[in-house]
Design brief:
By secondary structure, this protein is α/β, with parallel strands linked by helices. It has a single domain, classed as Rossmann fold, CATH 3.40.50. Helices cover 34% and strands 23% of the residues. It has helices spanning 3-20, 27-46, 75-80, 115-122, 158-163, 170-174; strands at residues 48-49, 62-67, 84-85, 88-95, 106-109, 128-131, 143-148, 151-156, 167-168, 177-178. An eight-stranded mixed beta sheet has the order 3-4-2-5-6-7-8-10. Strands 1-9 form a two-stranded antiparallel ribbon. Helix 1 (3-20) packs antiparallel against helix 2. The longest helix is centred in the N-terminal third of the chain and has 20 residues, at 27-46. It is globular, with a radius of gyration of 16 Å.
């Protein structure tokens, strides 16, 4: 089995597993939800192609950032520990303000305040933006987590990804709901 096919099946199995888990009501469900989202963030990295300019070296780390309060706790760090994708190890960074972000490849945006301004400041940067904030896609985000029938799924705005200089795998796009935001006059 080819390496690409193994990666595809690994992502597919993770997504099937993640989507089949019913989220419980209680504090434990919030923890479980963000554990699932942490696995998604790792898997997204396998199906996104960044331009060469996004990395200073061929072995530079993929930086996953969290903007705002950290809902993942130590689980995101644990999920990424010792993982390597296309020669790139992972680093997790936490940011409180958009101005702190110098290097980042995947940015989970937790803070809703000034979202339009935040996304505007990221324009032209090769950063995969991810969130579960309402209207995230409509405001220019790339991937939005949604809960449908107590399952975590995701929506993708391919135009925003293209504007960020990112290439999303067709395999990833097939698993998502594609959203094309409408511009208001």
């Amino acid at each position: 089995m080819s390496l690409l096919r193994k990666k595809y099946y690994r992502l597919l199995l993770t997504i099937i597993y993640s989507c089949s888990i019913l989220l419980l009501t209680s504090q434990n469900s919030a923890n479980k939800e963000y554990q699932i989202k942490a696995v998604f963030l790792f898997n997204f990295s396998q199906f996104v192609e960044w331009p060469d300019s996004a990395f200073t070296q061929k072995t530079s780390p993929i930086i996953i950032g969290i903007l705002g309060s950290d809902p993942f706790g130590s689980f995101l760090d644990g999920t990424l520990d010792h993982e390597i994708v296309n020669g790139h190890p992972f680093i997790v960074k936490r940011f409180h303000k958009i101005s702190e972000i110098k290097d980042c490849h995947i940015l989970y945006i937790q803070q809703e305040k000034n979202l339009v301004e935040t996304l505007s400041q990221l324009k032209g940067k090769s950063i995969l933006t991810v969130s579960d904030i309402p209207d995230f896609i409509q405001k220019g985000g790339i991937i939005k987590f949604v809960r449908i029938n107590n399952k975590i799924q995701f929506q993708i705005n391919p135009k925003a990804a293209e504007e960020a200089g990112l290439t999303l795998s067709s395999k990833l796009l097939r698993l998502a709901e594609i959203i094309i935001p409408h511009k208001t006059p």
